[in-house]
Amino acid sequence: MPSIAYFGPRGTFSEQAALVHAAPTDSLVPMDTVPRALAAVRAGDADLACVPVENSVEGAVSATMDALAVDDPLVAVAEVVLPVRFSVLVRPGVSAEDVRTVASHPHALAQVQGWLARHLPAATQTAATSTAGAAVGVGDGTWDAAITAPVAANHYPLDVLATDVADVDGAMTRFLVLRRPGALPERTGFDRTSLVMIASAERTGVLAELLTELALRGINLSRIESRPQKGRLGRYRFYLDFDGHVAEQRVGDALAALHRRCEHVRFLGSYPKAERASSASAAALGNSDQDYTQANRWVTAVRNGETG
Ligand SMILES: O=C(O)C(=O)Cc1ccccc1
């Protein structure tokens, strides 16, 4: 019975994402922070971790990005994309006029600034560890209102002041399901590969050179983020997401090129995209596995003096 550690407590969006991925017999284990959910998998206390990685309004979840780049490597085996609309929870009997403080995960607060300005303009905003962590804080009297996932209302004895709250229609959050390195998910033709790299030199054009390794092989870059390396200003890690699976020749070849040219590359997984129908990882002309196999055969023949 596999266990899935998720960014909790109960009633977070991460729990919703974990439920999308989980089989009915899997056990779900809430952890208070993203690093703790990942640490549980590294320590062998859980088989999988489900954590948020980015959303369409606020961008990257830095706690996840930073925790994936250090300590023992973990690899993604799946992604889950959820539409995000919020509920506002208060203690029973509390009305909008009574709300002096409102708390939530910073990414949730960022997505409801317009609504707060219109409905709770005088309330002080505080960052909580998670949306459901804010609900716990409302329950124990720390704050008056929490911005939460709709399901949080089922887990905490709180009243719903508002539902369907979102400044941006259609906002989405992407979650990764991660495990310790092992057998990779099968190649589906609708895959994404993620990695983090540190360029080997601070020199003009180095990032363009590295990205060209993808472009030359017809690989579509779907996301790039940078995060500081912490110890020194001006040194960055680059996180890349691109179409394709490492089992494909063009992707393996591109990874090898990045590995040759970077100070450090960490593979973060090849896994099926959440939206398969609309996003096939098509290899551009001359970059299919067959093209690579034929070309390698030809080079071998040239080396053996069998052809000119
Ligand atoms: O706090 C949560 O519920 C999370 O899972 C993180 C988060 C916060 C805001 C939007 C989506 C996910």
TrEMBL record:
InterPro entries: ACT-like_dom_sf, ACT_dom, Chor_mutase/pphenate_deHydtase, Preph_deHydtase, Preph_deHydtase_CS. This is Prephenate dehydratase. The gene is pheA. It catalyses: prephenate + H(+) = 3-phenylpyruvate + CO2 + H2O. GO terms for biological process: L-phenylalanine biosynthetic process. Pathway: Amino-acid biosynthesis; L-phenylalanine biosynthesis; phenylpyruvate from prephenate: step 1/1. It is an enzyme of class 4 (lyase). Keywords: Amino-acid biosynthesis, Aromatic amino acid biosynthesis, Lyase, Phenylalanine biosynthesis. GO terms for molecular function: prephenate dehydratase activity. GO terms for cellular component: cytoplasm. Residues 195-272 form the ACT domain. The record marks T173 as: Essential for prephenate dehydratase activity.
